[in-house]
Specification:
Mean pLDDT: 89
Strand content: under 5%
Strand order of the largest sheet: 1-2
Low-confidence stretches: 1-5
Radius of gyration: 24 Å
Structural class: mainly alpha
Shape: elongated
Number of strands: 2
Distance between the termini: 31 Å
Number of helices: 7
Largest sheet: 2 strands, antiparallel
Helix content: 40-55%
Length: about 240
């Protein structure tokens, strides 16, 4: 029986799954998304901004938003994305060079050094060795995996260099995940850029709207030191998810 789209696990859940290239993320004190973020008062603030005063699924909303926060902060803390709380900024060209120089080429050199042709150079006869012996077949197998995985990543990152801003991609993807949760809990919430209003404090004007207000609360909770959602980002989300 084909699984209905509504029953499928959200795509972003994989962002927090264990990965070979990193350890379990240790979040700063007070910033663990599973316990610290989206506290009860923040959930109340979201419901009020969504104009849902009688909203009675606060615990479910809290759990869903914390799940989104955990998955995206795991990605943020372990990926150079030019955002405040993540690793220092590293351009894609630098990441490609790192893969080529420090992973792919050394792995190929080790594979050659551990080949059958070079095995006689590793002969220990007639010495008595005290250190445990490595498994040469297992070493070659893991090195091949490492080289192949790094080569695949190198090709993918190279394709991104000319056309992709990964910071913008991350923010759009985060906005999309948040929208999935918000639309599920607040079906009447319409994805909209809002209305441009000029005030005495902001002579150039500012965008106001229900959806924008709710998104600002959510993004501020996850990325407190970075810019809030822009009108253009909301426009992209509208294209992705509709009104």
């Amino acid at each position: 029986m084909q699984q209905k789209s509504a029953d499928r696990a959200p795509y972003y859940l994989r962002y927090g799954e264990p990965a070979w290239y990193r350890d379990e993320v240790e979040f700063p004190k007070g910033r663990d998304p599973r316990d610290d973020l989206f506290a009860d008062h923040t959930i109340d603030e979201i419901a009020k901004a969504a104009r849902e005063p009688d909203f009675n699924a606060r615990e479910a909303l809290q759990a869903d938003l914390r799940e989104v926060a955990y998955r995206y902060l795991t990605a943020l803390y372990t990926t150079p994305l030019r955002l405040s709380e993540g690793p220092r900024d590293v351009k894609l060209t630098r990441r490609v060079q790192h893969l080529e120089r420090n992973i792919i080429k050394p792995a190929e050199q080790l594979l050659d050094a551990l080949s059958n042709d070079k095995a006689p150079l590793l002969s220990e006869w007639p010495e008595e060795m005290g250190m445990p012996a490595p498994d040469r077949a297992a070493l070659r197998s893991e090195l091949e995996k490492l080289r192949n995985r790094a080569e695949e990543l190198r090709l993918l990152l190279t394709d991104r260099i000319a056309n992709t801003n990964m910071t913008t991609e991350f923010l759009t993807d985060l906005g999309n995940a948040l929208s999935m949760v918000l639309k599920r809990h607040f079906p009447r919430l319409t994805i909209s850029r809002g209305t441009h209003i000029k005030t005495m404090k902001t002579k150039s004007g500012k965008m106001y709207g229900t959806y924008l207000s709710v998104m600002e609360i959510c993004v501020r909770e996850i990325l407190p030191k970075d810019k809030l959602p822009s009108s253009s980002l909301i426009g992209e989300l509208r294209k992705l998810r509709g009104p």
